[in-house]
Every structure is written in structure tokens, then in C-alpha cells.
Amino acid sequence: MASKKERTRRGRDELQRVIDMCKSVEERGLDPFLLNIEDIITIIREYFPEWELPEDLCLDAETVHHLASVIKMQSEWVRHRSTSLYTDPFLLEEKTRRLSREQLATIFLKSWHPIVELEQISPHSLTQAIQYWKELLPINERWQKTSYTETEMGFTSRKELINQKILSEQMFSEELEALWRELLQKVDETEKIKYWNFIGSSTFEESVRRAYLTSFLVTYGYATLEINRLEEEIFIKPHKKLVPLAGKKQVVSVPVPINFDDWIKWKEGRMN
Questions:
Q1: In this structure, are residues 195 and 235 in contact, taking their beta carbons and an 8 Å threshold?
Q2: Residue 82 CB neighbour total at 10 angstroms
Q3: Where are the alpha helices (DSSP H) in the chain?
Q4: Do 33 and 77 touch, CB atoms closer than 8 A?
Q5: Per-residue confidence at 250, pLDDT binned at 50, 70, 90?
Q6: Binning pLDDT at 50, 70 and 90, where does residue 48 land?
Q7: Could you tell me the pTM of the whole model?
Q8: CA distance 196 to 260
Q9: Domain residue spans in the chain?
Q10: What mean pLDDT is predicted for residues 222-240?
């Protein structure tokens, strides 16, 4: 038989687990009927006599509060379905399977309302067509040849290519190394950082460049992406040292769109 101390600890864990489940339903908009209310009430009743400390009683009250919130969501869900004449898809499928071909055909004919449209050439449309062809330029004027200028091939220097922004002053590997060390510094305590908070910069062009380099950090094993699909959040987590991915597991490509509107949202603090 469990001791008083063990039952108290077990009861706290059970109530905290119930609170976490209720919060998931409340915050993420999940189906409130995923929770079994009767089982949760049984758990609350079972451990209520064990509570003596004010902290435990507050935890019990918080559990009841979140449970009441879920019950309210269930009530609103039922009210919405009843007022909108909602019918469960599985019931509709079952009723459809039981109907004969003749009954299905009769229902289809009663609900079928085809739209008939008649189009014909009118004197007005003929006048517009004639006017269009009269104003159209001759084909030799519409298809003029594109002029071009022939130039001789020449040479250029690395300095000129850097000035024209074709080449960078740093080698590509050096840029990756520098970005990786920057990532390590930013996540020294949190271990990971939101994707946009890392690639975002003062200009859209620089943000695109950082996103481009970040994709190679992930590809080459310097970092990894963590995706929370329910909350639509993307995190980037660096490795303390290079982790080669080739040959260990299948690499999955994860496209992350970067556009000007998202950059504006991030600048204004509206990005998740």
C-alpha cells in the first residue's frame, strides 16, 4: 500500500497532467471531446481528501477551473452543431450506402439545377471586332527584330567582381563558419532560436542572403530545423560540432518560403 507522501506526490502529478491536457485543448483549439470528463472528475475526487497544504488546494482549484473551461467548449461545440444543422459525415456516408440506385437518382434529379447560358454574336460585338482589326499594326511593325551590339570578350579582376557584388570578399566556407559561430552565440542559453529571429536583418536583401546561407548550415550538418506544425513555428538548433548527414539517414528537404510580406511582419513584430 502506497504511503501518504507517495499518494500526495502521485496526485499532484495527475492533476498537473490534467491541467496540461486542458490547456492544450483551450490554446490549440483541439476537439474538446478528446478528454473524458468522467475520468478526470474521478481523479479529482480520488485525491481531494489527500490535500492539506494551501498549494495543493490551489492546484485542485486550478484543475477544476480548466476542466470547467473544457466543458464550456463542449457545450458551445454542441450548440454550434445543432444551430447550423450539422450532420456527422459518417452518418451521411452510412445513409448513402443504404440507398438504392433508383433512390440516389431521384435525389440527384431533385437537387440538380443546371445553369443554361446562350451566347451569340451580336451587331455590337461584330463592330468591336472590326474596329480592333482596323487599329492593329501590321505584322512587320509588331514583330520588329531586336537589335544587339557585338562586343569582344575580355578579362576582369576579382576586385571588380567584388565591387559588382558578383563575388564576396569572404570564401563561401568562411561565411558559413562565421554564420555558424553567430548562431552558437545567440543560442548559448536557450539551445535554439526562432528561424526568423536568426535570419531577419535590417534589409530584405540581407535577410534573403542569411536564409540562403542557413539552408547550407542545415544541409552540411552544422544545424538542424525543428518544426512545430500545430503552432506553425520553425526553430533552428545548432550542433556544437559538425555532424555529417550523408550515409546516416535519408535527408528530407524542407522548403521555407521567404517573401517581402513575411519580412515586413517580422520587422513590425507580428511574426509568430
A1: yes
A2: 9
A3: 4-28, 37-47, 54-83, 89-98, 101-111, 123-135, 139-142, 158-163, 172-186, 195-199, 204-219, 260-267
A4: yes
A5: very low
A6: confident
A7: 0.38
A8: 13
A9: 4-83, 172-267
A10: 81
Quote the crossing angle between the two packed helices 4-28 and 54-83, to the nearest 10°: 30
- Which residue has cell 484543475? 63
What pLDDT, on a 0 to 100 scale, did the predictor assign at position 208? 83
How would you label 164-176 residue by residue, b for 16+ Cβ within 10 Å and e otherwise? eeeeeeeeeeebb
Please list, in sequence order, all residues whose beta carbon lies within 8 angstroms of the beta carbon of residue 14, skipping any fewer than 6 positions away.
43, 47
The residue among 171, 220, 173, 217 whose CA lies nearest residue 195 is 217
Angle at 147 between CA 142 and CA 151, to 5 degrees: 165
Cβ-based neighbour number of residue 183 at 10 Å: 21
Q: Give the helix/strand (H/E) hosting 233.
A: strand 233-238
Grid cell for residue 17: 497532467
N-term to C-term CA, the chain: 49
Find the angle CA(18)-CA(20)-CA(25) to the nearest 5 degrees: 95
- Residue reference for cell 535527408: 251
Domain 172-267: assigned CATH number = 1.10.10.580
Q: Cell for 155? A: 578579362
Pairing of strands 193-194, 223-228: unpaired
Angle between helices 204-219 and 260-267 (to 10 degrees): 100
Which of the four pLDDT bands, split at 50, 70 and 90, describes residue 155?
low
- Tell me the pLDDT tens digit for each residue of 52-106: 888 888 888 988 998 899 888 888 887 776 665 566 677 778 888 888 989 988 9
**One-letter amino acid identity for 73?**
M
Helix, strand, or coil here: 16?
A: helix
CB 52 within 8 A of CB 12: no
